[in-house]
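Sample entry (295 residues):
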Amino acid sequence: MFNWIKNKANNGSSNYQDQNVNIRIVGPRGSGKTGYMAALAYWPNAKSDSPVESVTPIGEETSKLIENAQNILEQGLDLEPTRLDSKVEEVKDYTITITVKNKYQWQNGVKINVNCKDYSGEFFRDLINKKGDPLLEDYLDDCLQASGIMFLLDGTSYRSDREYAAGLEKFLLALDQTDLENNKRRIALVLTKCEQSELWINRDSPAKLTQLRFPQVYQKLQNWANLKTGEVEYFVTSAFGVLGTNFPEPNSQKIERNREGTKSIIKNPRRWRPFALVAPIYWLSTGQRNKDLEQ
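Predicted structure, serialized as tokens:
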């Protein structure tokens, strides 16, 4: 039915470890949360030597997300941002199975079953500006059920560092009020839109890049990690990718640039190849970094 599913797995093989991860994606408006999920579910123009063997979307909501990626992003239009829903139960809930190859014969591959809720940017804004709001409390309570949190930031929105740090501080305080059974919660700080030149050239040092661009956010996360109640890692991604190899340029066209970051549309849909989307999910699921997924 879906000819875009890159399903190359050897169905007769048992050399895969099943991992299940329950993720919440949070971040301010314009950080690229919906674009990230659309690109991940669609998985366009995958390289034949990619460590990702297959990405299989599951369920009606995930399939609808891919239809949007096909009909909107591939036509060079903008993907509609996630709206703030009136009930937590109405938040878009995406399910994807990601199969990562075993690099060596003596290693098992990993099959990651991802259940991921995508919150609107207003949720993060309301952390700063609202107190005692029932909807906000419901959203926070739902986030506390997740074992993994993806905190997405547009890497070009560094002028909002102080505001983001204030919201993050309240979010981390809420997380600390609930412990996971027999496990530590993991937070992946993900800088998006790294196809932009100032981010792309520093893609190999995501922690350093975060510290330079968002020093207050970085310090909040480091302080939280030092309490030993959870783990933090840093990643960079791009939903659009770049064009060329020797002198790469963003496969995106800027529409707007302000303190909230960069708004873009895809430049060349035929050469659409996202960058490093699976890397943070792999770490949230396994607790191990996979450098091949970050290339």
